[in-house]
């Protein structure tokens, strides 16, 4: 539990959007992973479902060339869908956070790579695919992933820059390309600001929750435990004393 002298500084850090110090930051990130665990699993399952269903409408909806279908199947069923399913499974089952985080990052990169590849093929006249799908996926990752805003910002700068460059250099219709660039630029701005705002608000909410717990359990003036803390701990001590056949007080 955080001590009172650390609380004011930690709250100032939260309101300025800065990282907490050492162990406190680790505890905050652990709380974030628990909070967003179900949302991350759902996100990767939805993305996997989208790629698993894609072969059903590659020809009719995306109007992909027949010669292109083997490549699309490999990207959709051989790479993207397994990557998302693996990320969802490990997020659900694996206790190894390094493995889980690495798989999640890899799955996001695979999704973005496939979307950029589809748009590249569309710009070269092989299929129909809207470039704004990149914005939809990255906004979904930002909203439901709970990842650090710095990582989201870096991904936003890199991938939106690639998408905008493709639109500028490969679009056959200059006006359509300009419209795509305009939409992508606004999506990039919303993604970056949204990621920062979400983390700012979650940091403030978490540190305020920690302060509330401390104030409920410890008297600010004396530093002694409150009646609330006594009522919380006493039944546990009684159960432990019964199990160990020990006396915890004198009559």
Kindly describe this structure.
- The chain has 251 residues and is an all-alpha fold.
- The chain has one domain (4-244).
- Helix content is 77%, strand content 0%.
- It has eight helices and no strands.
- It has helices at 4-15, 22-53, 69-93, 97-123, 133-145, 149-170, 174-217, 227-244.
- Helix 3 (69-93) packs antiparallel against helix 4 (97-123).
- It starts with a helix and ends in a 7-residue tail after the last helix.
**Percentage beta strand:** under 5%
Helical amount: over 70%
Mean pLDDT: 87
Low-confidence stretches: none
Largest sheet: none
Q: How large, in whole angstroms, is the Cα Rg?
A: 25 Å
Q: How many alpha or pi helices?
A: 8
Span between N and C termini? Answer: 33 Å
> Structural class, from secondary structure content?
mainly alpha
Total strands: the figure is 0
Give the total of domains. 1
Oligomer: single chain
Shape: elongated
What are the defining features of this structure?
251 residues; mainly alpha; 77% helix
Concise summary:
The protein has 8 helices and no strands. The chain has 251 residues and is mostly helical.
Task: Summarize the SSE layout with pairings.
Elements: H1 4-15, H2 22-53, H3 69-93, H4 97-123, H5 133-145, H6 149-170, H7 174-217, H8 227-244
Helix pairs in contact: 1-7, 2-3, 2-5, 3-4, 4-5, 4-6, 5-6, 5-7, 6-7
């Amino acid at each position: 539990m955080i001590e009172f002298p650390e609380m004011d500084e930690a709250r100032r850090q939260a309101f300025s959007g800065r990282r907490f110090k050492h162990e406190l930051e680790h505890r905050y990130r652990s709380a974030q992973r628990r909070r967003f665990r179900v949302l991350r699993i759902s996100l990767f399952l939805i993305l996997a479902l989208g790629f698993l269903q894609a072969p059903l409408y590659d020809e009719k909806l995306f109007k992909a060339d027949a010669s292109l279908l083997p490549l699309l199947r490999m990207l959709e069923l051989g790479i993207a869908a397994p990557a998302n399913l693996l990320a969802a499974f490990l997020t659900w089952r694996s206790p190894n956070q390094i493995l889980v985080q690495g798989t999640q990052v890899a799955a996001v990169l695979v999704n973005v790579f496939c979307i950029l590849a589809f748009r590249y093929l569309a710009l070269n006249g092989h299929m129909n695919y809207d470039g704004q799908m990149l914005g939809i996926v990255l906004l979904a990752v930002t909203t439901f992933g709970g990842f650090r805003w710095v990582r989201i910002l870096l991904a936003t700068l890199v991938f939106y820059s690639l998408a905008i460059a493709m639109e500028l250099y490969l679009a056959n219709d200059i006006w359509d390309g300009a419209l795509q660039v305009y939409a992508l630029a606004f999506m990039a701005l919303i993604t970056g600001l949204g990621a920062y705002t979400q983390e700012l608000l979650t940091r403030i909410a978490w540190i305020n929750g920690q302060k509330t717990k401390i104030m409920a359990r410890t008297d600010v003036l004396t530093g002694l435990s409150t009646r609330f803390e006594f009522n919380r701990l006493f039944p546990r001590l009684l159960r432990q004393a019964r199990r160990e056949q020990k006396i915890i007080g004198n009559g």
